[in-house]
Amino acid sequence: MSTQDELRVIALAEFTSAGYSATSLQRIAELAGVSKSSVLYHFTSKEQLLEAAISPAIDQMETVLAPLETIGSLGDRQRFLEDFVDFLLMYRLEVNMFINQGPSLVDVPVIERGSALVVRLAQFFSQNSQSVEENMRFGIALGGAAYMLCTASTYGLEFPADETRAALISIMSELLAPISTR
Amino acid sequence: MSTQDELRVIALAEFTSAGYSATSLQRIAELAGVSKSSVLYHFTSKEQLLEAAISPAIDQMETVLAPLETIGSLGDRQRFLEDFVDFLLMYRLEVNMFINQGPSLVDVPVIERGSALVVRLAQFFSQNSQSVEENMRFGIALGGAAYMLCTASTYGLEFPADETRAALISIMSELLAPISTR
DNA sequence: GAAAGTGCTGACCGATCGGTCAGCTATTCT
DNA sequence: AGAATAGCTGACCGATCGGTCAGCACTTTC
């Protein structure tokens, strides 16, 4: 792995666990075994390092959300949900960071891009219902999943990957099912 | 409201929205219309200001969790859940901060106290089941509720208080119901 | 073999951080 | 009236922050 890739991976892990503003370039450099100057050679600023760390996840979310407006049958919906859960599992660090720290990182372009996607997703899941509960079910599913996938390990909870996937799909299906099928 | 109380309220709001480490004492002082020195007169350090800001919430959580081990009937359980939801609503800022930034604030005593309470709560809701899904339902309910109560406003969502309470109780009851009743 | 480019470094910069301290003002206590 | 206390302040401190820059070693290109 190139130094640049290594820095991106380390930065993502630190940004997620300690927080963006609490993570110094110096610390990232030390963890990577290079100098701070080297970090700023590969990335022109701390903010650009953040962009590089999470933009692949936002790109992938864009791809996963592409067929959103064409979902028709319940089968379509189930397939989309599974793809979305796979996305959450694959990019759990990025998602957690976006969910937890996104609101304090407005004006970072990639964060705004992600926010727009979340709004689009929320609109889909509540388009046939303006009820408070319906909107809250979506919020709890999204925020809860992001929380589970990262923060849970704080309490020493570690789950097998396949079981995690199955459980997540099951719970989110339940939370996000159309009213008519509940 | 005394200057001290005002500082605590402002600090809590800023810590929650911008993050603990991203919030400077200077900024808190400016928002309160006093000098930075004045902040450090009322609170001996930034960390102690954090303690003062969230310890009332942790105290209240301790009170709410007190009857946890004596819960017997489904009625007990329902009453506890309602009390817990009321606690979440009352201390939404503190809870959000604890959930989102707690893991990066270990070694702060009040955070550790809160973590112990969450562990105790998790054990209750999964004591009769070590299944992955059961544990995840708890995590999603807790993390999701915390997310909804604060971050959702980022996306311009604002719900009436009473509807929020009812919906939250309904959703969390569903997520945390004993397996036997599902 | 000179020139150009890549990866990386230490020295250094201004700004800001959390925190200390002496001292000011106004109120309260004796 | 005088002493003590509470509330608050500006000046200042060392440390650390993100970021700049000249220059080093090495490889590739011409």
TrEMBL record, chains A, B:
DNA-binding positions are: 24-43
Domain HTH tetR-type, which positions? Answer: 1-61
GO MF entry, a single one: transcription cis-regulatory region binding
Q: Which UniProt keywords apply?
A: DNA-binding, Transcription, Transcription regulation
Which Gene3D superfamilies would you find in this protein's record? Tetracycline Repressor, domain 2
Origin superkingdom: Bacteria
Indicate the segments annotated as coiled coil, or none if absent: none
For this protein, the record's Pfam families field holds: TetR_N
The entry's protein name is: Transcriptional regulator, TetR family
